[in-house]
């Protein structure tokens, strides 16, 4: 028995499937006119029921692609075939309100009698695309975390840089990556690390970047045609070397620094359009992290260098203090011998030679104390033009005819608080160093300018006056430059330099409230810049005062000194001048004697008194007991530690060590006279 034919339900089934399909369904004719839509299409594109019928299919596409789509549609209709969903186009649809959204399209021809219609199934892939982007961004975030850990866990950023190009290339799935840094000595670029780039190509890349001018923003570089979009014309060699079958797309991201980019992150890809927004964002994040690591490393090096110099300064100051005590004893005993020695030529020559050696040693300790910032300065407001005018002629004479000296300074610059004599000594030190670096002659240019200080400086000291000292000498290598400020470091032959010139200038600048910078390259000379804070005070002429005559006294003086030999020398000096003396080896003993002896007319004390109270503490305690007691302090340096009250120290007169008998006599005279002055 034959089976009964199946009922004809195809039209109803087609309509049910068409209307209930989860994707938008649109049918168009040969003219591209919409002849049928399902409810999902109307909902997806925001149209009402049957509003799309009769409209061209291009109404659902962005206006910029409509004309091109007509051509593509005609080609497809000429040879139609099935393009299933997922194998069709990924396009952008446009809703009725004009908002775009990503879509995926499948196409299929439909034969109805003698006509052929074309059905398009359309799927909104916004959520799918967002999910893809989320996965990609999560992968980039994980790679950025690896970069961050690499920078934090590596012993130095140099080691991290070596491994970073391969990590970047793997994360972005690109052919090559390189990290280039500015060559501070050669003026160009150096490829620090790379992957996928041959050494020959590295040289070409660096060569082309030498004269290129890059901004602070990341740039996507599109290779193609006769030019490279986004690349300056100076980058021509790289186009010729890299585009020929090797790479089709590139990105260049500067490594930001305070003033200009310190380097570049270069990434090359073999496919066009490889660098979308997410990849560029990842590269910018990596560049920022790398630049921050470099800046942190530099700051740590500068801090370590400053701490090393400070430690050396403290050690130097302590040595200089002890040495000044010994020089005081040597110089004082030479003076005592000079007063009683036989008047013969041999004895006189020996005493004079020993005195000259003592003076030279005193000059050496003076330089040491300047480096250690423990030598008292006498700053006063001074015009830069005045400082330079007084130096110009002296430098010309000091440096000789083979050195051309040029000094320029605008008249309108503000005054600076500076000790003129120490400033002269600092400039002369720099000039002598420059002369020694120009054995065949050369040029020394001194220029002065004004500029605003960084925001970290107090508001009232924002203005700065900068002295720039530039020579055309041999220059210094990076290794020598790294140690240039350290005391006793010198590249000169034995006997031709103490190695204290630059360190003395460094100490002078610290004491003056400023700072210095040095830039030098082998074969290109040296540039030293001295930054002084400007002052609003008006310059005034220093008061001239005639030195008092050496005076014989009769007052009683309490000498407080923990070094017995120095104390005995001071006592002998004072007794030879007619003064009565009392001795104490420490502050406690001195306070007891001040309480027992009301006839003491002056307290003469060293600042350093071993453990316990300092000479400043003793002077303040003595003044509380005897408000009008004259006080004279002495020391091999001005202050012992940063916690000493500098304001209290300035209330008392100070006699630096080593001192001569005449200097002690004048200081005692001033202290006694000041106590008798009215008011």
Description:
The protein is of the alpha+beta class and 679 residues long. Among the domains are: 115 residues, Beta-Lactamase (2-Layer Sandwich), CATH 3.30.450.20; 156 residues, 2-Layer Sandwich (Heat Shock Protein 90); 121 residues, Rossmann fold (3-Layer(aba) Sandwich). The chain has 18 helices and 23 strands. Helix 8 packs across helix 14. The chain is elongated and about 145 Å long.
What topology emerges from the helices and strands here?
Elements: H1 10-20, E1 24-28, E2 34-37, H2 39-45, H3 66-78, E3 90-94, E4 100-112, E5 115-124, H4 126-153, H5 157-172, E6 176-182, E7 189-195, H6 199-210, E8 219-224, E9 227-229, H7 236-242, E10 249-255, E11 263-269, H8 277-340, H9 345-371, E12 380-382, H10 384-399, E13 403-408, E14 415-418, H11 420-436, E15 442-452, E16 463-471, H12 478-482, H13 501-511, E17 515-521, E18 525-535, E19 556-560, H14 564-576, E20 580-584, H15 587-596, E21 602-606, H16 615-625, E22 631-635, H17 646-649, E23 653-656, H18 661-676
Parallel strand pairs: 13-15, 19-20, 19-21, 21-22, 22-23
Antiparallel strand pairs: 1-2, 1-5, 3-4, 4-5, 6-7, 6-11, 8-9, 8-10, 10-11, 12-14, 14-18, 15-16, 16-18, 17-18
Helix pairs in contact: 4-5, 4-8, 5-8, 6-7, 8-9, 8-14, 9-13, 10-11, 11-13, 15-16
């Amino acid at each position: 028995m034959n089976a009964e034919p199946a009922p004809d339900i195809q039209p109803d089934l087609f309509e049910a499937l068409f209307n209930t399909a989860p994707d938008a369904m649109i049918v168009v004719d040969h003219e591209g006119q919409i002849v049928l839509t399902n409810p999902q299409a109307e909902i997806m594109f925001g149209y009402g029921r049957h509003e799309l019928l009769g409209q061209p299919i291009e109404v659902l596409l962005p206006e910029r692609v409509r004309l091109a789509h007509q051509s593509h549609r005609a080609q497809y209709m000429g040879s139609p075939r099935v393009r299933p969903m997922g194998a069709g186009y990924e396009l952008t649809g446009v809703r009725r309100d004009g908002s775009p959204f990503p879509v995926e399209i499948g196409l299929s021809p439909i034969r109805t009698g003698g006509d052929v219609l074309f059905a398009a199934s359309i799927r909104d892939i916004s959520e799918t695309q967002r999910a893809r982007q989320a996965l990609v961004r999560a992968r980039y975030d994980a790679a950025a975390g690896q970069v961050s850990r690499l920078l934090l866990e590596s012993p130095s950023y140099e080691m991290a840089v070596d491994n970073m190009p391969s990590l970047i290339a793997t994360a972005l799935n690109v052919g090559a990556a390189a990290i280039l840094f500015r060559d501070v000595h050669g003026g160009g670029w150096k490829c620090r690390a790379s992957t996928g780039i041959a050494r020959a190509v590295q040289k070409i890349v660096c060569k082309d970047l030498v004269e290129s001018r890059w901004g602070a923003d990341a740039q996507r570089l599109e290779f193609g045609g006769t030019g490279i979009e986004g690349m300056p014309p100076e980058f021509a060699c790289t186009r010729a070397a890299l585009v020929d079958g090797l790479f089709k797309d590139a990105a260049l991201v500067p490594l930001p620094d305070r003033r200009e980019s310190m380097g570049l992150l270069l990434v090359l890809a073999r496919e066009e359009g490889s660098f979308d927004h997410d990849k560029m964002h990842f590269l910018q994040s990596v560049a920022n992290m790398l630049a921050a690591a470099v800046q942190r490393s530099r700051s740590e090096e500068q801090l370590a260098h400053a701490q090393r110099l400070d430690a050396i300064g403290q050690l130097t100051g302590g040595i200089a203090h002890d040495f000044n005590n010994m020089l005081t004893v040597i110089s004082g005993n030479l003076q005592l011998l000079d007063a009683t020695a036989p008047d013969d030529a041999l004895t006189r020559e020996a005493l004079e030679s020993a005195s000259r050696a003592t003076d030279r040693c005193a000059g050496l300790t003076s330089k040491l104390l300047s480096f250690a910032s423990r030598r008292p300065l006498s700053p006063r407001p001074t015009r830069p033009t005045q400082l330079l005018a007084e130096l110009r002629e002296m430098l010309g004479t000091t440096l000789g005819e083979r050195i051309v000296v040029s000094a320029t300074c605008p008249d309108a610059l503000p005054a600076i608080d500076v000790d003129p004599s120490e400033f002269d000594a600092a400039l002369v030190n720099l000039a002598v160093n420059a002369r020694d670096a120009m054995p065949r002659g050369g040029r020394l240019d001194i220029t002065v300018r004004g500029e605003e200080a960084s925001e970290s400086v107090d508001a009232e000291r924002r203005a700065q006056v900068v002295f720039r000292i530039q020579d055309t000498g041999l220059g210094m290598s990076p290794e020598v430059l790294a140690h240039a400020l350290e005391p006793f470091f010198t590249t000169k032959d034995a006997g031709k330099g103490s190695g204290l010139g630059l360190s003395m200038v460094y100490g002078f600048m610290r004491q003056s409230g400023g700072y210095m910078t040095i830039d030098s390259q082998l074969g290109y000379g040296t540039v030293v810049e001295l930054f002084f804070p400007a002052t609003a005070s008006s310059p005034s002429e220093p008061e001239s005062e005639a030195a008092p005559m050496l005076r014989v006294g009769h007052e009683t003086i309490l000498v407080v000194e923990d070094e017995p030999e120095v104390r005995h020398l001071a006592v002998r000096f004072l007794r030879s001048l007619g003064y009565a003396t009392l001795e104490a080896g420490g502050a406690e003993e001195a306070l007891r004697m001040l309480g027992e002896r009301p006839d003491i007319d002056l307290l003469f004390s060293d600042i350093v008194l071993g453990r316990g109270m300092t000479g400043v503490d003793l002077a303040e305690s003595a003044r509380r007991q005897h408000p009008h007691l004259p006080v004279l302090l002495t020391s091999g340096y001005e202050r012992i530690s940063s916690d000493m009250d500098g304001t209290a120290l300035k209330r008392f007169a100070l006699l630096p060590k080593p001192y001569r008998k005449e200097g002690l006599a004048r200081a005692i005279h001033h202290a006694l006279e000041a106590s008798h002055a009215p008011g």
